[in-house]
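Researcher: For the record, we're logging two predictions in this thread. I'll number them. Prediction 1 follows.
Model: Prediction 1, sequence and structure:
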Amino acid sequence: MTPSKRPRQALAVALAVAAALLVLVGPAAGSRTTADRHALTTVTVDTLPIANGLPLDLGISKGFFANHGIEIKKVTLQSGNDIVLALANSNGDIGYIGWVPAFIASTSGVGVTTAAASEVEGTNLADNWQNIVVKGSSSIRTPQDLAGKTIAVNALHGVGEVVIRGAFKKLGLDPQSVKLLAVPFPAMRTALANGQVDAIWTPEPFLSQAVTQDGARVVMAPGPTIMPYLPNGLYVARTAWAKDNPALAKQFRLALNESLVYAQGHPAEIRALLPAASRNIKLPVWSPVLDRGKLLQLAKLAKEFGAISRLPDLTQLVPGTIASGVILKADVGASTISLRLDRQAVKSLSPGTDTIAVSDRSARQNFHLKGPGIDRKTAGPRSAKVTWTVVFRKGTYRYYSDTSPKLKGSFTVG
């Protein structure tokens, strides 16, 4: 259970500095002078109309990008493949896309390089933000019932196709037994309502809109079926742009990482950016670290299901400036407590920066993590979901409930 050593020291320092500044002076918005703002360099970011891209908006409003000398110009497109095409034609500097379109670009001669990590999928149908839904009146009740049916995805040979077919394989079903139809995310609910498709694979906020407003039902969570915390999104830069603007690319990464960490710690501010009727949605786990092992597994699935003809060179697509890390799942209930990596109890980790998604399900207990450089806990006496990005150092760490010390565990870092 020990992840390989990874280049994470720079991220650890940046996060520590950012955390210290937030504690001392609060959010960064407004900290630049008017004269400074006239010197901002414009970076054009192509993005998608989904909730996962909102940390960018929050970072802009908080002044994180301005504090790094950047003014963001947003351009919204409908799919990662559309964004790759735009970048290939120099219509944008950086794009927010899924990992499968990034693999396609990397293996098709489109020069892109990872500018920053973004988010992952959840661990099960209940907590995932990107699922397959059907009409409330549909006879489709299980993933097995989807065989032979037509499912809307936002693009063929994209993330949706790979994870749906990969999930079918994991369940022992025929991956080719479903038909896929390309439909833009905003048009999927209409396509489902008028019978153009039998099901839709859709992210938030469209997922919650379909369920709450249309009476749709969730029948499958493809990403978590394949693996917990499946890597989903990232920001890529045109390789030529990144090469010509190395300092600017670095400042974008630092500002985006700051935005991801802030967004994860302030979900109410993310929800405030959504229409009032869509604010009670499921949010992803945003993290500036990347699990390269899971990324390789996803790349193999993309190759198996024809999205790419060969595996990408991940050392070129994901430079060492993107910190490696893992996402851990912490859970505390009325009489249980655990810390897991891919459903296995954590016994040891390597030093560096990782993200911990904490599910505090008890109104009485809490989750308290303590060890070298870390003393974090959920606040009782209420249940909550929080996410911490932490820097682990060599030594022993303990986790326990302050209310019931018998609920405890430990692991080593070294």
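Researcher: Logged. Prediction 2.
Model: Prediction 2, sequence and structure:
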Amino acid sequence: MLRNFFRAVGAITKKDLVVWLRQPANMAAMIVPVLALLLVEALGSAAVGRSPVALVRLDQGPKAVQMAQIIHQADVFRLADAGSESQAQLMLKNLDVVAIITIPPNFSQRIAQGQPAQINVEVNNLNADFTNDIRRSVPDAITQFYQAQGAASPIKIGMHESDLRQRDVEMFQYTILPTMVMLLMLSGLVSGGISAAREWETRTAKELLLAPVARGTIITGKVLASFIITFGLGLFVLLLGYILGWTQPEGIYWISTLLILVLVALFSSALGIALGALLQRMQPVTAISVNAAFYLFFLAGGISVLAFEPAWLQAIAAYIPLTYGDHALQMAIFYSSSDQLGTDILVLSVSALVAVGLGVLSMQRNIAN
């Protein structure tokens, strides 16, 4: 009996995989929305990650050179060295830069004489995000300049940075994992939902019912096919991110990373089976799956750091399984940490079991009818 069970499950799984691979439109329905979101995130990160700024140095003295080097090394600007004030003004007018930082001609001399020396900053405050970056970053660069003077500085400043994390994560890189979780969710919903809905749309559901196999075997095969598609896609994205330097878990954290992918893939696949059996039409399954995946992505805090989002969004996110998958992946991949891993795995495991139960119940009820 066990051999017959595995043989039947394998046959159903193989059939669904073959049918799926012959339907490129279904694959596009999973991948294209995620690629579009990644493109938007990449463009947004490039636009706001570092503010474009023109630097005009009108003083060739050593202190002016040192100040310019500190501004270059601040790592918060996309600097363009302008040869003159008129060139910088033209760049500001054409919106090539958001601000102009000018080191005046007498900067080094006034520093040597112990006199106040100003740095001129002209900001186009068209956007509060850009403007606040400049307002914070220029004083920080000046502070670093004073620290670099050592004992000769008229203002004694000591700076020491203590990071909570071992590494810095770029803004675009930080958005990769929520997008990967959304891809798993979308893939499971679409592949599982279409697989189940196709049986009714093509009128093969009764043929499955009349086959000499148990209904649980049929459902297991369909869930397994959707799971293989979803997990395989997630694993491909993870490995691609590893090659590109975006997602690089280390050591034992590969295990927790893969486990989270498995649980999210199982959850979404079983939920897709339940959705497909309920709607019994492929077109509405695809439409609802895409919209549901995007809404869950945003409600789980996918576009930012959830801890800094409004309290009402945090309250909603606490009931969305994707929140825990996203958190577990961030801890494992970015920070080599198992913080709250037990809670994340428990929530995802329970969610996957509930989704499998819904899929089984929905398939059994609709096949019986």
